[in-house]
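Dear colleagues,

As part of the handover before I leave the project, I'm documenting each prediction I ran so the next person doesn't have to rerun anything. This entry is a single chain, and its sequence is reproduced below.
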Amino acid sequence: MQRAGFSFLVCPDPEIIRERVERLLADCGQSFAREVFWGDEEIGAPFWSALTVASLFAGRRAVVVRRAEALPAEFWPKLTPALKGFNDAVWPFFCLEGPLDRKGGPKLPKTLAEQPYFQVAQKRKWVFVSPGLTRRDMGPRLSDWAARRGLVLGPGVAEALAGALPPSLAHADNELAKLELALGDRTSLELADLGLLSHHEGMDGFAFLDALAGGRDPTLVWQEIFDKELAGEEMIFPFIGLLLYEARMMWRLAVGEADDVRLPPQVRQKKEAMARRLGSAGLTRIFEAAFAAEAGIKTGARKPDQAMEFLTAELFRLFSGQMRASSRISP
């Protein structure tokens, strides 16, 4: 494979960037020593020496600049002489790890976008842009993960796991490693095993339901999700997955089929109490509301924020009705 003269990697997930650099270097079929520099630290003489000074004995070098979005504006024009021609001994990588713009495109420093060498990189497809780990990526990654380890995913596991894993490659890999360790000699992953997953900040489906069940205003809960997690479709689909996961778990608790569910005692007690309170009819309404919200986005009938408002309203009506019924039968 003919390698790029230089590469720009734009992604808010540093682990995906690291993985991409490793893959590009492996695919080119040549050996490169790596030298890493950081854009939020001073870029001095060692960087310029690594980028430009050839040596008969040093071999090929991959010069990787992490967090390049933090580099000062005057840095980018200074690169022009070094990037004018192809240097077989040096492969520069510039990793821009800030968030993408609202449309999902790369948010580039103005002085970089104006440079002729960057326009060459765009034309020759030497620019890699990724929004980070999305729900769309989770399915293939989970299939590869399970196949490499000889694991079978039980009914509903792939969907629940895709929704429950955090949208960070490093954190998701840590959660999968935790599940793999807990399985031991077993080769089948079941829904009950997912109780071991850590809930990541801002994406706790049960906290959302608990806010509604307690009669609290859920607006602040889901607004926090929008603020701290990915917006739009890339946020709401994983969140719906988490709600469905919680509903399935409570269904098992309600019908007495969750002896193997591993949860901290206090968490299990709260979920069992909500499962009893909702019953099969209430849990069914959670499934229906979640599926309707998801379908609304996929068909274009609702925008993601409208679907979230619809979902919140439906669940609020469910819990409000239960509270009114409870007050009528209280002595």
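The first strand starts at residue 7 and ends at 10. The longest helix spans residues 265-298.

All the best with the project,
I.
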